[in-house]
Write a structure and sequence with these properties.
The protein has 313 residues and is α+β, with helices and mostly antiparallel strands. Helix content is 20%, strand content 29%. The chain has two domains: 10-46 and 204-263, no CATH class; 57-178 and 265-307, Sandwich (Jelly Rolls), CATH 2.60.120.
Amino acid sequence: MANYLIPPHANAIMSIVRNQAKLEGATGIDELANEALTAETSLNAVDDDAVAAPGTSGILNLNLNGAFTPAQLQSGVVFNVSDYPVGALPTGKVIISEVKSTAIGSHVAANLMVSANLFNSGTTDSHYLSSGVQNSVGWVTSDEQDHLVPAGYAPVLNVLPNEYNRSDIVHYSPSSGVDDKLVQRYGHLGSGDALRQGVVSFPGEDYYYVQKDHVVLDIIEKNWEALGSSVPNERVRDGSWIKVSNTLVDRVLDELDNSVLKHMPLTDLSKLGFHIKSDQVLGNMLEEDVPCAVSLNLSVSYRTVGDDPPVAS
């Protein structure tokens, strides 16, 4: 199982979710999730074995092929996984652990940039260089990068003019700013507004009602010394809600979102797509309106971060 090292810029951001000044061994979130609640309250502790259990793995073998005119290739051609009869897919988020080509055949006398929306589980299209995820084999780069790679996509490989090979070549394997244990523990959570589901605000009030099983309560309770505050021993209201300071909840959720969740290399396979586009220089020299054949075999390895059952594609 891969490890995702915490980058230097995350040290200060993750201050509220660790109890040590140095990142040695487990991070603060690991510590929080492994410790028991220090007070006998109505809050639910995280079940470490259930939340952190490794997900299942799978492989998609896709053939991207077709005959395309120069105009189509310069506009960009998209292949969506949802259009393939790949069988059951996980309903939740996954980590794509590897993308490799097993065969390439191109009758196009131009470079073809192949990119994929690998980090498509969020609500916005983030640039791959600012996603917090690195490619351990390096991102392929072209002097026409902005033209060739759409917003929300990451460059996977460049097919050379008239390339043909049958070699297995790895083009993408992630390394992230988030430890793998944190990915398994918190990867199922939504980012942004989705993280605030179960948090109810009241106009003009300085508190929220938070569902008693919300992750923010567990983090606050197990890291109260670093936060300088704790969840009070409030009674559970209407069987489900705990009253908590809104500034405390905002701080924890914002830092959890910005320093952990947004740096996870998470993918929604049902939205995964591959984009092929020709370079402008050689592409402009192709014979107009004459289709050129392209065929790529790609192997996409993934593992889940939750226990969601698969659904048919």
